[in-house]
Amino acid sequence: MIKNMSNFSVFVLIMTMSLGLRILLVCGENINGNVSGYDFPSGFVFGAASSAYQMEGAVDKDGRTPSIWDTFAHSGYMNGATGDIACDVYHKYKEDVQLMVETGLDAFRFSISWSRLIPNGRGPVNPMGLRFYNNFIDELVSHGIQPHVTLHHVDLPQVLEDEYGGWISRKIVKDFVEYADVCFSEFGDRVKHWTTINEANVFTLGGYDLGFQPPARCSRPFGLTECSTGNSSTEPYIAGHHMLLAHASAARLYEKNYKDKQHGLIGINIFSYYFVPLTDSIEDEIATQRANDFYIGWFWNPLIFGDYPDIMKKNAGSRIPAFTVEESDSIRGSFDFLGLNYYNVMYVEDKSSTLQSENRDVVADIAIKLHSVQNDPSIFEYPITPWGLAGVLEYIKQHYNNPLIYIHENGQRTRRNSTLEDRSRVEYLQAHVGTLLDTIRNGSNVKGYFTWSLLDYFEMLDGYESGYGLYYVDLDDPNLKRQPKLSAHWYSDFLKRKEKASL
Ligand SMILES: *[C@@H]1O[C@H](CO)[C@@H](O)[C@H](O)[C@H]1NC(C)=O
Ligand SMILES: *[C@@H]1O[C@H](CO)[C@@H](O)[C@H](O)[C@H]1NC(C)=O
Ligand SMILES: *[C@@H]1O[C@H](CO)[C@@H](O)[C@H](O)[C@H]1NC(C)=O
Ligand SMILES: *[C@@H]1O[C@H](CO)[C@@H](O)[C@H](O)[C@H]1NC(C)=O
């Protein structure tokens, strides 16, 4: 009997035997919280999130070519850590779908590797890439798990970066739409939730202004790293502009050619902090609005109102491209849902005195200084600030006509090889889903929650130093054995109470 029990059950059993029932009850109460999946509206989906480069591995198998992320990792930006093997989901996807089933997920969010599906960036489809995604999607669907698919998650085919500079060229729009077309036509019979671009705002800032993300473009004195090429003053705005045009063209194509038969939804994803004025000065309050306009408004104002926020046009001047009337009409309303990644709260301090200098970059154009709620940078784990999630959702409800939202990412960062007893993750998730329920009851239009992440992946900023997973992946084991953390048991319990309720 012991053999078939999970680690957690054994842990509880030992606790019970040695310390008595009272402890068991306290422990159970702790990990369950006062909210369960049952309390959410019917149709609400709970899932976990991932991306291709961070989980798949097999980067040179079966015809895949490098993406800008492979190039970035292999250039040593991450102390030698790469996604070459990652969690080897390419070979282990069946085992991982089994973990999703055991956890009780309704949905799984993942991205397609463009350079695995279309190795030359455009043109012929790679039959082995096609087969992998068909198999993976079939495995999910046959186990009752909805696939929520992202088309671009920081991993543009390197070949397009080399040919014309990727997102800084308008040529990207045509190639992106053709790639999206292949995905809709091949997978759209089973995939009902499409996200065009992950964290469009962070990708532009990280990739083209500060240079800490692929494709690592930036210019002095603005980048955080030494970039070999780029222009921090102009390229973030140009890349972001092309992302909006590419998103809208793909969404319009879906609407025109696929939506009637496939009945799916399409959206785009951004990252947000909840911004709070550092002091109650009017300057900090205005600076907080500026932060929201530059982080959220950059993408959502065009999508909802058809143009960039006024403050962006004012501060960036001719460095931010303008939409034609036709483009504006195409972008406005080109979504069914908006995807939001939320982790943390930031306090905003006004720095508008810095606006005098010329040739500013996006970060300088915002003219703010951010202060983390966590004062001690040696603390690895995120502070637990669910009120920030409520704050962002309330902001969106009030400023953007309460659009349909999926929380695409939310989760706790811990040291990867610390204990499986990840109580801070349980507390983090429990607090956020509890608050999410409160916001839904107060009118926010949220239909899904995905925790980042299912497994401990190759992480964007930390490589293999941190993990966000419900499951630990043992990198020293040649089979990359997955082991459930306390958070996997908590999530499973939370979700199974949902299942029970709907019977
Ligand atoms: C759960 O408990 C928290 C903290 O006590 C409370 O703020 C929240 O409203 C509760 N949620 C529900 C749905 O009872
Ligand atoms: C960036 O582009 C702007 C506008 O073309 C130009 O004025 C500026 O000198 C460029 N900066 C760099 C570092 O190339
Ligand atoms: C609930 O929504 C209303 C209307 O948007 C808002 O004024 C109020 O602050 C919200 N309550 C909470 C607790 O966020
Ligand atoms: C955990 O990971 C860190 C960073 O990679 C490393 O320094 C440390 O030695 C590891 N600890 C164990 C017990 O493996």
Automatic annotation (TrEMBL):
Question: What Pfam families does the record point to?
Answer: Glyco_hydro_1
Q: Where is the signal peptide?
A: 1-20
Biological process terms from the Gene Ontology for this record are: carbohydrate metabolic process
Which key words tag this protein in UniProt? Glycoprotein, Hydrolase, Signal
Recorded GO MF terms: beta-glucosidase activity
List each coiled-coil range. none
Under SUPFAM superfamilies, the record lists: (Trans)glycosidases (SSF51445)
In which family does this protein belong, per the annotation? Answer: Belongs to the glycosyl hydrolase 1 family.
Instruction: Specify the protein name.
Output: Beta-glucosidase 11-like
Q: Which organism is it from?
A: Ficus carica
